[in-house]
């Protein structure tokens, strides 16, 4: 499952780097006013929300890992202290054994709690990542449909009589300007 998470992370990095490069080329192209941005805007908001929640889960996971590491460090320190006390106080073995048992029980309980929390966080993160990927695919579909609609609208506009007439007028005017320039240069 770690490999899958790494693959998803690489996919997201490639998506974000490619999406960061696209807007600069999009700014140079003239675009028609969008017909309906409701779906695209909703998808963008959903993606942002999912990314924010994913970051929160990652931060929570790091906090839990830090707590687990601290608990394990504390356990090893306590075990070391306990062993030193056993050497010094050989006649109190029964009390020390009880303390060790209590510590082991506490550590086992902490481990169970940590594993449960990690499993819950991992499942939630997987769900969020799958939802994020689905939302990205939906966003790409909507963007593709919007692009297709814009191209069709532009094509229809170019086929109108008004567009052809304006194009003919511009062509004639350009030729007249060329002729006038030639006459002026002579």
TrEMBL record:
GO terms for biological process: negative regulation of protein localization to cilium. Residues 40-183 form a coiled coil. Residues 10-38 are annotated as: Disordered. It comes from Ceyx cyanopectus (Indigo-banded kingfisher). Self-associates. Interacts with BBS9; the interaction mediates the association of LZTL1 with the BBsome complex and regulates BBSome ciliary trafficking. GO terms for cellular component: cytoplasm. Regulates ciliary localization of the BBSome complex. Together with the BBSome complex, controls SMO ciliary trafficking and contributes to the sonic hedgehog (SHH) pathway regulation. May play a role in neurite outgrowth. May have tumor suppressor function. Belongs to the LZTFL1 family. It is found in: Cytoplasm. InterPro entries: LZTFL1 (IPR026157). This is Leucine zipper transcription factor-like protein 1. Keywords: Coiled coil, Cytoplasm. The gene is Lztfl1. It holds the Pfam family Leu_zip.
